[in-house]
Amino acid sequence: MLVGLSANSFAELIVNSGSGAVSQAKLNWSTDEAKQLLSQDRNSAEVSPRGSVSATTTLRSNTPRVIDASFANRGGPSVAAGSALVMDAHTGEVLYSKNSNASRPIASITKLMTAVVTADARLNMSEQITLQQSDFDGPKRASSTLKPGDQMNRAEVLLVALMKSENPAAAALARTYPGGKPAFVAAMNAKARQLGMSSTHYYESTGLDARNVSSARDLGILVAEASRYGVIRQFSSTPHYDFDLGYRVLKSNNTNALVRNGGWNINLSKTGFINEAGRCVVMHATINSRPTVVVLLGEPTTQSRNSDATNLLSWVNQLPKQI
Predict the structure, then answer these.
(1) What are the residues facing 271 on neighbouring strands?
(2) Annotated catalytic, 165?
């Protein structure tokens, strides 16, 4: 939990300890307290109950076990997704798998790596970013409530990219990175290689390019890694936020209905959609005291994506603590 900022020049940032949601305070970070949230609080997040091994390290050591095993032997529900993975985030054990090694377009799931690279750079989150026309240009036209000339600080740009999946925001994060977009994309691919995401490649930061590809297995690794960043957990699991741009207010909702409805303890979430990818979602949730990663790629509809995600979470809730 990030305590409120005491200085009058900085608005209070209050994190709801139950949902991880961000309050309606202006996200203006430049104090040591605010930097705490960007410190990837890795010493306290996702630690193995058997000792001190992080979830990501455990997963990478178990990579040969992340195989496309039949989910039928575990009695898991059938899903409409082209690829799926459910994994115990503590042990790296795969609980459910369907075509999990297949590389496929991932749409806005890309923005999860965009957030990781942004957080790793430790940039000034209070820096004002003005959206440019180039942030709206890309391989596909996508609807947006943002406009060229809109100005937010970097924290708000990251929040709207994760929560509302705004493509111009993700493009602006890459454009304002040291070295610009080429350096940002290079950092995305370098991070993927570092994590052992062997089926993954990024061409840009939004997910609109269908050449951004990954596998359910690789995204399980990425979700486990991203869940170690407090800022990503909290921003991606914020159900609603109104962005005050000074001359207009953008009332924004999380793109994941399961986050908006609040029925599950979801710590991290990202959805995605382009025609080539279908409907996609990745989540890190705590289910029956078990930290769980869920990946669904290539769902035919938003309804089936939500239904399959709910069924998988319900199934995990019925599993014994140790399998």
Answers:
(1) 281
(2) yes
**Which is catalytic among the residues 126, 165, 214, 252?**
165
pTM higher than 0.70: yes
Contact between 179 and 65 under an 8 Å Cβ cutoff? The reply is no
3-state helix, strand, coil in the chain (%, to 5): 35, 20, 45
Q: Catalytic pick from 98, 111, 191, 270?
A: 111
Q: Quick one: tokens of 107?
A: 């749409």
- Which CATH number is 148's domain given? 3.40.710.10
Q: How far apart are CA 81 and CA 38, in angstroms?
A: 34
Look at residue 156 and tell me whether its pLDDT is greater than 80: yes
Domain assignment of residue 26, yes or no = no
Averaged pLDDT score across all residues of the chain: 82
Q: Do the beta carbons of residue 15 and residue 1 sit within 8 Å?
A: yes
Q: What one-character DSSP code corresponds to residue 277?
A: T
Active site residue 111: yes
Domain of residue 93 covers 32-318
**How many domains are contained in the chain?**
1
What pLDDT score was predicted for residue 21? Answer: 56
Q: Is 166 inside any structural domain? A: yes
- Is 44 a domain residue? yes
Give the pLDDT of residue 306: 97
**CA separation for the pair 323, 315 (Å, rounded):** 13
- Cβ atoms of 85 and 293 within 8 Å: the answer is yes
Residue whose entry in the numeric block shows the structure tokens 């990663």: 293
Q: Indicate whether 17 belongs to any domain.
A: no
Query: Which listed residue (83, 97, 108, 236) is catalytic?
Result: 108
8 Å CB contact between 93 and 62: yes
